Amino acid sequence: MGNIITLYKRDQVQVACSAVMALSSVGMLYFVARQYNRSSQGLGRGTRKPELFAHLGRSVRLTSREQDLLNYVSFPDELSPFLCDIRGMDSVLVQITVGLHEPLLYAKESKEVKTCHALFHGPPGTGKTMCARALAKSCNVPLLNVTPSTLKDKLYGESEQRVEAILTFAQKIAPVIIFIDEIETVLGETKVGGNEHNAALVGMIRSMLSGNFQFGHGVIVIASTNRKDRVDGPTLRRLPLQIEFPKPDQKDRREILQSLLDQEGRVASSEDVSALAQITEGYSNRDLEFIVNYAARLASSRSDFTKRGLSIREYQKKLHEQGVPPLSSIKKRDITKEDFLRAFRQRGDPDPRILE
Prior knowledge:
By secondary structure, the protein is an alpha/beta fold. The chain contains 14 helices and six strands. 52% of the residues lie in helices and 7% in strands. Strands 1-3-4-5-2-6 form a six-stranded mixed β-sheet, sandwiched between helices. Helix 8 links the parallel strand 4 and strand 5. The longest helix is centred in the first third of the chain and has 40 residues.
């Protein structure tokens, strides 16, 4: 009987030891995952501090999490274009100038000037990100680009600490623009049964958008979405300036096309540009950019290999053996109707007969 009791106690001890070891292993895995996640986020930590100090004209003390955010900062000299260089978006630029550009410029001079947060909404490719970058460059302030992946983390409590770091970081480097892309994926319509972790994250982000703002003047948050209908009501109320980015009309499309040609340093006949603007109804800024860029590539010697009597295999062999020729040696010709037609076909659009 005594042996049986001894064996029973021994089994209990072994089970308890196994449980402790299992818990220890889980804890160690969690610690390793957390440290790996931090280290992966902190790659290059501190390497951009001299750029920040040069922009601010002073040094600031940053926590490790705030230093991680430097990887997501674009300084004015890294941004383009200026607001004044954007064409074909006049109605949008008026709203940006009155609601964001002037207030942020004055906020750099006086704390009496109030700034407000904004929502850029509209179809994909209509220039929302470009205008946020142009606003930061025109105001000579950094742009902190925040994506859903920057905010969300599977490790409990990590996401909330990142949002807190964004708040304190913005306060230290103000004036600054915080650009949050795809806001609907973080602050979309509340779903029944949402977990506590997401609720805490949503609450912190809404706090960041509330009032005129506990982290100081000269900080503007611009949220961007392709689906305004999926952004929840409480978030919309915290983004009082809501600017719609529609697809360009025919007049705007012509200005955008001409601007793109000028940027490429290319020439196309005025008649072809007007015809192209007429047949591209429903095209976004990004769609027009593809058409012009692809047509421009076709109108250069590097793509006209067939006209030089080379097959695609011979041309590829030449590239392999000799490398890409210097850009300065590439001869460019005017873009023709045929180039635009090939660009349309490459994009998968039906042939625009008006160009033929």
